[in-house]
Amino acid sequence: MNPPENALVISVDGKTQIQALDRTQPILPLKEKAPKRLTATYKRNDTVALIAALAVHKGDITAKTMDKNTAQNFLQFLKQLCRKYRRKHLHVIADNLTVHKHKMVRE
Known about the structure:
This protein has helices at about 70-85, 105, and strands at about 5-25, 40-55, 60-65, 90-95. It is of the alpha+beta class. A hairpin with a 5-residue loop joins β2 and β3.
């Protein structure tokens, strides 16, 4: 509620298994006075993971997609946040996901 001077509170969370979908056909032909129509079928391309950080008091959002949510990828994201908010003391809020508590991340 009251971060120290020159501090920034950041909430970090991730979403895994996001499906990257694509329509199997382009937009169907338009008819006069009718909304555009799309096919109901789609192609599964792969899955991605999203990690995002919210600077709580500023409202800034930083996000990154990755193939997998691993401790190494999480650590790279934290380093990206450190570069973005240089000269700030970061207070990171994260859940108890195993990759957030990995030895590399804690160090």
